[in-house]
Write a structure and sequence with these properties.
alpha+beta, C8orf32 fold, Jelly Rolls, 8-stranded mixed sheet, 39 strands, 20% helix, 39% strand
Length: 634
């Protein structure tokens, strides 16, 4: 009965697509509307994921893509990862000219194969096969490739994007999911407006989605992540098994129970370490104890990746981390959890989607789309999150890698969806104080004092732990001047996690001289030149992920023979997106004081307000470039 269903599905798909595939490889068959502004056109893309059993699955993929010019050539690259549990087979790769004539059939021996082990990985059996077409083919040409992946486990189902990237159009894209009803699978559609067909036959179900005629779409600035805008299908199994560890992902409770089951047999830390931690934390408050143990972790361990079979999900023993001094995010988090338990502080293993474009968690759609683990430690006053893989993060700091997002806390009573630490606009502050000595030739000596707070402090905190030579390189790169000499600098931690940077800079010809006047823009080191591109047909809402503020105070010591030529009118801008203000005042001692405040607000704003957003940034850019004139006294 299973084979009958598969045959029915294949016949159904073939009938559905036959009109699209006859004489398909000729470039002349691509509608002009799909070629407009595109560097490549996906003629056909089809994926099929078939669950064979609770611990077996097969994924087949085929694509036909026409490369219109050099900027689109990467769309014709083939690459796929595999390992001992994912067998990569039946790779086929062909090339056709603009008329659809076959001009190249790649031999199996031409497919590259190498280890995909990363530089920070200790245990990993990943490999990659890839093929990149040589440069000697005339545009346009068409690439066709296909392959099969056989899974010796069931844990995830590949998600499906109907369009691949910017500047690429898609003529036809389809995805099929087939599963036994007693194993089960679930799916969620995002921005999908195509067609869907479902076929049921006794003990199996098959669903096919298809979309046709997607024009290339350039990702608009401040529009969020590509994956959240383009049509896609997310899917996940209900029941699953990975190397003998069986679970049920149809509920978050079932998934949390499976995660917990991976740590029931772990070997704890040693008694001597427990005694040492008790001595280190004796008489300290709860928060101080957490800090001491976190800093002990940073001083006595390092991060390495473990991606070997179930080791990609199961933490290895805290005792192993204690003996070896290394572990991945799972192992280091569990080691820290064990150390906290030694001083009677409960903490919770926490799954997270790390990186700049995190996946959100849907309470009604359990799916394992996490790529990292941190530790959550509740206290009476606050909830502390620990990034256990970093040897340089200050205590409790998550930053943009894991901060301000949903996470799945694995609790004995069932998993809980909570949010990690957020960083309000007022906290993400750079305070900059400059004393600038100007001579009559336009040269300047700049004494700068900056304090980085909130999200701004994280990167500088890492620089603080670098050798002096590397620190100097980072400091030089941060100075926004065309030519200068960095004479001296200092990096200091002034409060918990906040970084102070002091620099002494010599900048020749900072001011331009014309006759008896010196001209320059007083905002010396922090000009905001960014202006969002014009777009009168904005489609997506404006997304500002992180708000922040800059507060600059600059004291200009001008030559005694010069004075400010004219008064400078203060400027105050206020909009839904933030605030900006500057003022310049001549001081009684002959110095000039420049004060600038810029605040950008976090939030999501209606697409119809894009012109207002654009105008706000235009005014800021003009104001930051505005020059003042010093005139020679008579």
């Amino acid at each position: 009965m299973k084979n009958i269903l598969i045959t029915l599905v294949i016949v159904s798909i073939s009938t559905w697509t036959v009109a699209q595939t006859q004489d398909y490889y000729s470039v002349a068959k691509i509608p002009d509307s799909l070629q407009q502004d595109a560097h490549a056109v996906v003629r056909l893309k089809h994926g099929a994921f078939e669950i064979l059993d609770i611990d077996q699955a097969k994924y087949t993929f085929k694509t036909v893509v026409t490369i219109l010019d050099e900027k689109g050539k990467e769309e014709g690259y083939f690459y796929e990862y595999y390992d001992k549990l994912m067998r990569l087979e039946q790779i086929k790769y062909k090339v056709y000219d603009k008329n659809g004539k076959l001009i190249k059939k790649v031999k199996p021996s031409e497919i590259n194969d190498r280890s995909a082990i990363s530089g920070y990985s200790l245990y990993e059996d990943n490999r990659i096969k890839w093929y990149m077409l040589p440069e000697n083919y005339e545009y346009p040409y068409t690439v066709e490739y296909s392959y099969t992946l056989n899974f010796k486990f069931l844990y995830f189902i590949p998600n499906w994007f109907f369009n691949t990237s910017e500047s690429v159009s898609t003529q036809y894209s389809s995805y099929t999911l087939t599963y036994p009803n007693d194993v089960g699978a679930r799916y969620k559609e995002h921005n999908f407006n195509g067609e869907k067909r479902e076929t049921k036959q006794d003990d199996r179900t098959s669903i096919t989605w298809r979309v046709t005629g997607i024009k290339c779409q350039k990702l608009e600035p401040y529009a969020g992540a590509w994956k959240d805008i383009m049509p896609r299908i997310d899917a996940a199994p209900a029941k699953f098994s990975f190397e003998g560890y069986t679970g049920d992902m149809s509920t978050w409770k079932g998934f949390g129970d499976w995660i917990n089951s991976l740590s029931t047999d772990l070997e704890p830390i040693s008694e001597p370490l427990k005694q040492k931690l008790t001595q280190l934390t004796q008489g300290k408050s709860k928060v101080e104890k957490i800090r001491i143990i976190y800093e002990y972790l940073q001083e006595n361990s390092r991060y390495v990746s473990i991606q070997l079979g179930i080791g990609g999900f199961k933490p290895f023993d805290p005792a192993v981390v204690e003996r070896t001094g290394y572990g991945d995010c799972k192992a280091l988090s569990y080691f820290t959890k064990a150390m906290l338990e030694a001083v009677n502080i409960p903490s919770y293993y926490t799954l997270i989607s790390a990186g700049p474009n995190p996946n959100t968690i849907d309470k009604k759609f359990p799916i394992s789309n996490f790529n990292h683990v941190i530790l959550c430690v509740p206290t009476q006053q606050d909830t502390i999150f620990l990034e256990c893989t970093s040897q340089t993060n200050y205590f409790g700091y998550l930053g943009m890698f894991t901060g301000d997002r949903q996470v799945l806390l694995i609790h004995p009573d069932g998993p809980k969806i909570i949010n990690t630490t957020s960083y309000p606009e007022k906290q993400n502050l750079i305070e900059r104080h400059l004393h600038v000595q100007i001579d009559e030739h336009g040269n300047a000596i700049i004494h700068q004092n900056e304090i980085y707070n909130g999200l701004f402090s994280g990167d500088w905190y890492q620089v603080y732990h670098m050798p002096k030579e590397d620190q100097q390189k980072e400091v030089k790169q941060s100075i926004n001047l065309a030519t200068f000499e960095l004479e001296d600098f200092q990096l200091n931690v002034v409060q918990h996690g906040n970084i102070e940077l002091k620099t002494n800079i010599k900048a020749n010809k900072l001011l331009s001289k014309a006759g008896n006047r010196l001209f320059f823009a007083p905002n010396i080191l922090n000009k905001n030149t960014f202006i969002p591109e014009q777009n009168s047909e904005r489609q997506n809402d404006i997304v500002i992920k992180y708000g922040y503020q800059h507060l600059d105070t600059i004291l200009l010591q001008i030559p005694p023979s010069y004075e400010l030529e004219a008064a400078f009118e203060p400027l105050n801008l206020s909009s839904e997106f933030g605030e900006y203000a500057i003022k310049i005042e001549a001081q009684p001692d002959g110095k000039i004081r420049y004060v600038r405040h810029f605040y950008e607000k976090k939030g999501t704003f209606d697409a119809g307000k894009y012109q207002e957003f654009l105008n706000f940034h235009k005014k800021i850019a003009r104001a930051d470039q505005k020059k003042i004139a010093l005139i020679l006294k008579e």
